[in-house]
Design brief:
By secondary structure, this protein is mainly beta. The chain has one domain (9-123): Deoxyuridine triphosphatase (dUTPase) (Deoxyuridine 5'-Triphosphate Nucleotidohydrolase, Chain A, Distorted Sandwich), CATH 2.70.40. It has one helix and ten strands, in the order βββββαβββββ. The chain has one helix at 71-77, and strands at 8-11, 31-34, 41-43, 48-58, 63-68, 79-81, 86-88, 95-102, 108-110, 115-123. The strands form three sheets. The chain has a four-stranded antiparallel β-sheet.
Length: 151
C-alpha cells in the first residue's frame, strides 16, 4: 500500500496568494492550512464559524484527510476545530472549510492567511463489512467506557 499518496489540489480564486497546505517542519504529521477570507472574522467566545480555505482536494481511494486543531491556537486562545478530527472523504470535491470554535474567554480575530488548522492524510480501510449478529464476543473491558478506568 502506498503510504505517500499524491493529493491533487485545486486553488479557488479566493485563495490567490495563499500557501498550499504544507508541513512546517520535517517531522510534522499535519500540514497547516490557512483562512481564505477577504475580511477579518471576529470569533467571539462560545461561537463557531465556518472558515473557507480556498482549496479543493482530490484524495485517492483508500485515504481520507483529517482536519485537526492547531495546538498553539488551542493552548494559547482556546480555538479548536469543532468536529475534530473532521474528515474529508476521498470522493468529496468541494472546497475544504474548517469549523472553528472559540472556547476561550476573549474574542479572537481570524485574518486572511492565518493558519487555522492542520490537515493530516490518513490511510483507511477500503472496504468494511458490517455483519449483524445477535451476540458479540466478550472482553475484559466489556461495555465500560466514558472514564470507566478512573482519572
Amino acid at each position: 500500500m502506498n503510504l505517500s499518496p499524491s493529493i491533487h489540489i485545486k486553488r479557488l480564486d479566493h485563495a490567490s496568494g495563499l500557501p498550499v497546505p504544507a508541513r512546517m517542519t520535517a517531522g510534522s504529521s499535519g500540514c497547516d492550512i490557512a483562512a481564505a477570507i477577504d475580511a477579518d472574522i471576529v470569533l467571539m467566545p462560545g461561537k463557531r464559524e465556518l472558515i473557507p480555505t480556498g482549496f479543493c482536494f482530490e484524495i485517492p481511494p483508500g485515504f481520507e484527510v483529517q482536519v485537526r486543531s492547531r495546538s498553539g491556537l488551542a493552548a494559547k486562545h482556546g480555538v479548536m476545530v469543532l468536529n475534530s478530527p473532521g474528515t474529508i472523504d476521498s470522493d468529496y470535491r468541494g472546497e475544504v472549510k474548517v469549523i472553528l470554535i472559540n472556547l476561550g474567554s476573549e474574542p479572537i480575530i481570524v485574518r486572511r492567511g492565518d493558519r487555522i488548522a492542520q490537515v493530516v492524510p490518513m490511510q483507511v480501510a477500503s472496504a468494511v463489512d458490517f455483519k449483524e449478529k445477535t451476540g458479540i464476543s466478550e472482553t475484559e473491558r466489556g461495555a465500560g467506557g466514558f472514564g470507566h478506568t478512573g482519572v
